[in-house]
Give the backbone structure.
Amino acid sequence: MQAKDVYFILHIPKCAGRTVQHFLTSNFAEKPSGLLNRDAGATHPESRILIPARRKAPYRYLGKRYEQIAPGSLDSIDFVFGFYLSKSMKADFVNRNVKQAVLVRDPVSHFYSHYNFRMAKYAAQGMTPFSFDLWYKSRRPNPISKYLFSYLEIPYRTHIFLSDQAKLNLILQGLSEFWHVGTHEECDKLIERIAEEQGVPPAFENRNVTQKKFMEFDEFKRSYEMKIREENGLDQAIFDYFSSKIPLEKRERPKVGGREWQNILRGGLVPWYIFRYRLKRRSKT
């Protein structure tokens, strides 16, 4: 008897992951899951889904970022989903064909969506929303790339001195082994592929869409589009590559400039801006 496939679906924030998660839990779990504590992890009762737990600090900075799962508990698991899975988990699924998948997003709409999500969350908790300028300064560049590096388990010491072009080549080489790489706007294609293989309806609901906007998108683009594209060139190149309509085998890899030391210089001020916005969001002025 041929072993069942197991799907590894990396969830990058604000890349339609909650929509995919809701589809999975609606079809392959006894009960749909709510939002999960990122440090708790979950195996849904009587389900086929594993959401790995984030390993506690400082251990997640010294090795694997997920809590190890006892191999015997994985026999019924057909879907591994979340922020904290990594490719080394494939070794826990002996004789299983692992199908890796991820959705990516362009950095401009990604930062816009993430900002509105955070401000809505703060407002709901009675905190004070604040400007995009301050919030953006508290973000490190190329956040989507960092999730991909973590999944591919390419250590920081390996790529710290590489050019952005060399880092892009590493990421695209790793993603070339994936069963599905798409954009967040085409999450339906990922859902349709899973549904067809698993024999379930491809119906889904858009989830985790922030209704309240703290800045209009047209105004946002006029003010920040060029800056975000320039400072997040690696994420933009990844999106350009996978959103292309050219057949995959005929695509040329994008050219991207920049080096890690430039990100380090900018990132050195991030803790100061994080401290500022944490004070500001608790103020009532």
